[in-house]
Structures are given as structure tokens and as C-alpha cells.
Design brief:
206 residues, Sortase, Chain: A, two-stranded antiparallel sheet, 2 helices, disordered N terminus
């Protein structure tokens, strides 16, 4: 009997550690972000010269984010694409160690608001996005894209909102270029199927 009780206590301790301690995987720094190069205007044709044919426009290819790095905390995690659910809410990923990007919105660094969410915890495991509430203004966040390129951002605002009081601009996909990171805060409320508050970190390109 005592052995069984001891085993239960040990199991309970392990579960507590998994719930409240962020267990990080080995960290690999992101690719070095490259600043955008200014475009050199084409030279004006000489008087009387036959104008050169206009080049065909390069087809637009949407950048696909695949990893997010919280560089100052040496935390990285993969990003997966999600859509809008039938209830109109942004989808999430059933994994504490992954982040979700709203594919219908802009990619991070494009014009508008790129939305990325992650869990504060999931099934007893503390999620990587639990660090959002601890972030500071100016902290760096780097996004790596499918083509191997990377773009650096910095946190410009960190706010906590009640679920019913989230400003419209937080989820608005338009406006100035920014990336909004979102996670839950507080205890799980079974009546609403989620926590009652949200941590929102807005980042802008460096």
C-alpha cells in the first residue's frame, strides 16, 4: 500500500513539473535576417533609342513561415498553417510545442497583421507561448520562412485583455505591417472551453 501511495506521489510530482516548468528542446539560432535591399531604378533610355520591352512581372509567391525564434530566451518552435473555424475563430494546434499561423492573413513582414498563436499549456504540458506574458518591449522575435530566409521583429506592445474585451485591431488583418502573437492566460474555464484572458504581443519589423 505504501509503495502504491509513494508511486502516486511521484507521478503527481512529475505531472506538476510538466505543468509548471517549461521544458525547452535544444536551441539552434535562426538564419541571419537580411535587410531588404533598395531597388535600383532602371536607366532612362537614350533619346531616339528603341525602348526595351517591359519585363514580365515576377509572379507573387507568398512567404510561408515555418519557425519562430524567441532569440533572447533561446526558444524556437515550428509553425503550422491554420484557417478560420466554423465559429469564426482562428484555428489552433493541439500541441504545446507548436505555433499556428493564420494562412488567410498576411505572412509576417507583409503589409497587414500576421496572426500567430500558441498554447500557454496543453494536456498538462506548459507551452512555449507561456513566455509571452514575461516578454519585454524591444525583445527580438525572428521568423524563418520556407525558402530559408529570415526576418527579425521586435516587441512593441504587450497587453492582457479579457476575452470579451479584445480590441478589434488585434485581430484585424489589415493596417500597418505587424505580427501579433497571442496566447491564453489564467485557469481553464470549462463553461467557455478556454481561459478567460489573452496575452497579446505586437511585433514590428526591425
Amino acid at each position: 500500500m505504501y509503495i502504491a501511495i509513494a508511486a502516486l506521489l511521484i507521478t503527481g510530482t512529475v505531472l506538476t513539473i510538466r505543468e509548471y516548468v517549461l521544458i525547452k528542446k535544444p536551441y539552434t539560432p535562426p538564419p541571419t535576417p537580411r535587410p531588404e535591399q533598395p531597388r535600383t531604378p532602371a536607366p532612362s533610355p537614350s533619346p531616339g533609342a528603341t525602348p526595351a520591352p517591359s519585363p514580365s512581372p515576377t509572379p507573387y509567391i507568398k512567404p510561408i513561415p515555418v519557425k519562430i525564434y524567441f532569440t533572447e530566451r533561446e526558444i524556437e518552435t515550428d509553425i503550422v498553417k491554420v484557417g478560420i473555424l466554423e465559429n469564426g475563430e482562428m484555428g489552433t494546434v493541439d500541441d504545446a510545442k507548436l505555433a499556428a499561423w493564420l494562412e488567410e492573413g498576411p505572412a509576417p513582414g507583409e503589409s497587414g497583421n500576421a496572426l500567430i498563436n500558441g498554447h500557454v499549456r496543453w494536456k498538462g504540458t506548459k507551452g512555449y507561448f507561456s513566455i509571452l506574458k514575461e516578454m519585454k518591449i524591444g525583445e527580438e522575435v525572428v521568423i524563418e520562412f520556407e525558402d530559408g530566409s529570415a526576418k527579425a521583429f521586435e516587441a512593441v506592445s504587450i497587453d492582457i485583455y479579457k476575452l470579451d474585451d479584445i480590441p478589434d485591431e488585434v485581430l484585424n488583418l489589415g493596417g500597418e505591417t505587424r505580427m501579433t502573437l497571442i496566447t491564453c492566460l489564467g485557469d481553464y474555464n470549462p463553461d467557455i472551453g478556454t481561459s478567460e484572458s489573452r496575452v497579446v504581443v505586437v511585433c514590428k519589423p526591425k
